[in-house]
Design a protein that fits this description.
With 568 residues, the protein is mostly beta strands. It contains three helices and 33 strands.
Length: 568
Amino acid sequence: MHSIRLCFLLSAFCFASAASAQDDNKITLSGSIQSDMMLPQSDSKTGAEKDEDFLTNTYIDLHLQQKYVEAGARLEYMEHPMPGFENDFKGWGVPHFYVKGKLQWAELTAGTFYEQFGSGFILRTYEERSLGIDNSLLGGRLVLKPLKGVTVKALGGKQRRYWHWNKAFISGADAELNIDEWMPSMQQHNTRLSVGFSWVNKHENPNDNITTTQDMRIPNGYRYTTYQVVQPRYVNAWDARVNLNHGAWNVLAEYAQKTADPSLDNGYIYRRGNAAMLSTSYSQRGLSVLVQAKRSENMASRSRRDMKLTSSFINHLPAFTQDHTYTLAALYPYATQLADGEWAYQTEVGYNFKRKTTLGGKYGMNLKVNYSYVRAIDRQWEQNKEFSSLSNSRMELAGTEGYHSKFFKWGNETYYQDLNVQLSRKFSKSFKLNLMYMNQRYNKTVIEGEGGMVHSDIYIADGKYQFSPKTTLRAEAQYLCTRQDQGDWTCGLLELSLVPHWMFTVSDLWNCGGAETHYYQGYVTFNTGAHRLQLGYGRTRAGYNCSGGVCRWIPASKGFTLSYNYNF
């Protein structure tokens, strides 16, 4: 298989070179190298285990660009993968390779590629290395721009799953119309209007081994009957959206629906899925406002229906919760409930107090308030009169409609709630302080499988002092208090930056209310030109790493780390 990909790449590069020679256009070579390495150690206090002496995740990306042709490839080496990337991630090869031809208003890609329709409700393929996600498609994509303001896409291929491609074939089309480009009067009034329509089809052969057992009531007792769950070969999904931008206002509305797709995610039920979103924002003169709501139901869509965790997703639904960067604020991150569905709300207000005012002080002040709330949808589980009693066990409902749900009705459970207030103020030319308070409710049972509701209050202070144009010291102090789960946590960090080359960082995360374990870390970072080298040592706690509502479990680890990045 590696030889086939190598031949593909060599042919693509030769084609690009030939095109360059004919058209007298130079070829531009660009790329990057990323290598994360570790010398692991066992640690009884954190549960870290040492299975190998040396671990590494290494990626080498290469891209050749010319006026009409582009080609690229990525080599990945994870024969001895970093913690959290074991098992299916282990291996090496060239999983990403493509050649792209561009001519006037047409663009054709062959090989592997990434694509997103709209907000990703029915299709989003992307790479997120920190989560171990690369669900690219292997096939072809055609992009046409035949008229002003019109973009049409068509694609087809098989989806990557670690070092293989799933057997299901994914095809789809998308059309986006920028209406304001046809109407000069809208542009004169600073108004932009676009509408989009998408369709995605999955062709997957059914799994004949999926069965369900039901207990039928008869006069003298019960008779147990086993049924085969017949899965559809074709699953279709469509999406429609409209985006209006006028001055400081922006409004986005989107709705998607998919046909029945009985899978491991939903317990092999035959209910259709749908997702609806409305997002409104305003930004002008120091004031920003965001209000958005989303309802989703049974929208887990995979290219292999018997998969679980983060593998083989075709689509993506944004979490509508804030992605926190501070350690304790991100200790309990939210993961979008694609299969069960959810009502999700988020609102954020930001305001800049002007300089030389009572609240703004000499240098001004920024205040931001964010509130996120995620709740279950209403689900009334189906009761089939033919059977004695069906519980909420999903496999007992396999082959049925599963449940009924009223669109605007909430369910009984709160999944997540986050109210945080952030204050940023510069007190002098040298000193700036950021303060944050956060109140959080985290349904650990829903998100992780067990643990109940965790209530926490989080306090954060982040100060930065600039001694000189080249020397800056930043310090963080964080505290999380809770009576549930592992109890209270504290976190401290010091970061010394010596521009343009050096940065020194030390931190300690301490579970002071539970196991009283210290997760200490130290890093030395060196930058020169396009090179970045970081050496570190310390402990990492076991927990979830999340981005945009997608989460992956990371085991505890301890040891020396070395990271190298180079872009050219």
